[in-house]
Write a structure and sequence with these properties.
314 residues, single chain, disordered C terminus, rod-shaped, alpha+beta, 60s Ribosomal Protein L30, Chain: A
């Protein structure tokens, strides 16, 4: 009986598990909170750095998102997606400074207008020269006597000054290139005036249609060219710069003034052309081609035609 009272006492201890502080679920919630805060601050930063025009575009997108998505823009919500229409340009911010160059500050050049301005300036210069020569003819006692033989007009080549024959007052000796004394005086007076303009000078000699041919083959072509050259020498003797001469030709009776009467003394004349710029360029260009084709000196200078008949005879 005594042994029954010595039974062992068994103590059962229950071990409680704290489940690791709820298994760490709070960390996930905290991470989500931090991510949301970062997204919020990023959004605030973007809104603060976006231009007013882009903000208006975003606002317009959320007002009519489907229409904006269908109508344009490189990306939904940018300022180029704003539907075009009347009113103020939403992409324009008051006081906004554009780095692009202002189109109004760019210099533009109108070549057509500049060319017309140069032509007008040249025309005015030649008109002034004509008036000066006309005044000299009217006031100079020497030239006034030959007023009817001095013709001034404008052609497509420039200002033309013509010294023509009269029935009883020829400029040259009969069938020769010898100038009469009064013809020399006229050329001397004109030569001094031609230096007032920078334009180049062209000379052409003309005869009437009276047949003339020597035994040596000397004809009106040679005669007209020689007379033009004789006039060139007298212009230079009168003070004209010899470098102004660009063309000397003889045309015989190929360009009569009086086409109805080819024997009219007025057809015998010397024409002095004060060339405009276009004519000067044409002569220089044609002369350069002639110089190259004939194996000229190679200096690029224009060839002066001193005798047209020589080319025709060949």
């Amino acid at each position: 009986m005594a042994e029954e009272g010595l039974r062992p006492i068994i103590v059962k201890r229950i071990k409680k598990n704290a489940a690791g502080h709820h298994g760490g679920a709070w960390k996930i919630a905290y991470a989500d909170f931090v991510t949301a805060m970062m997204a919020f601050f990023l959004l605030m930063w973007l809104l603060g750095s976006t231009t007013k025009g882009d903000l208006n575009g975003i606002s317009e997108f959320f007002k009519t998102p489907l229409k904006v998505a269908m109508r344009g823009g490189d990306g939904s919500g940018d300022s180029s997606s704003v539907i075009p229409g009347g009113g103020k340009d939403l992409s324009r911010k008051d006081g906004q400074v554009h780095n692009a160059e202002d189109p109004s500050s760019k210099k533009t050049y109108n070549l057509t207008a500049a060319k017309k301005a140069l032509e007008a300036e040249e025309a005015a210069r030649l008109q002034a020269l004509k008036e000066k020569i006309q005044a000299k003819i009217d006031t100079n006692p020497l030239l006034k006597k030959y007023k009817n033989q001095l013709l001034l007009d404008f052609t497509s080549e420039g200002l033309r000054i013509q010294i023509v024959d009269e029935q009883n007052r020829p400029m040259f000796a009969l069938a020769k290139a010898e100038l009469q004394p009064y013809t020399r005086d006229i050329l001397h007076e004109i030569g001094a005036v031609l230096n007032d303009v920078p334009n180049k000078i062209g000379l052409s000699g003309h005869t009437d249609s009276t047949p003339y041919l020597s035994d040596a083959g000397y004809s009106n072509w040679e005669l007209s060219a020689d007379r033009a050259n004789a006039s060139r020498r007298e212009l230079i003797a009168g003070g004209m710069d010899e470098n102004k001469i660009l063309r000397v030709v003889g045309l015989a009776s190929a360009a009569n003034i009086d086409k109805q009467d080819p024997f009219n003394p007025i057809n015998r004349r010397i024409s002095i052309i004060v060339m405009n710029k276009k004519t000067e360029q044409d002569v220089m260009r044609d002369g350069a081609k002639l110089d190259v084709s004939n194996g000229g000196g190679g200096d690029g200078s224009a060839t002066t035609a001193t005798s047209l008949p020589a080319a025709l005879k060949q």
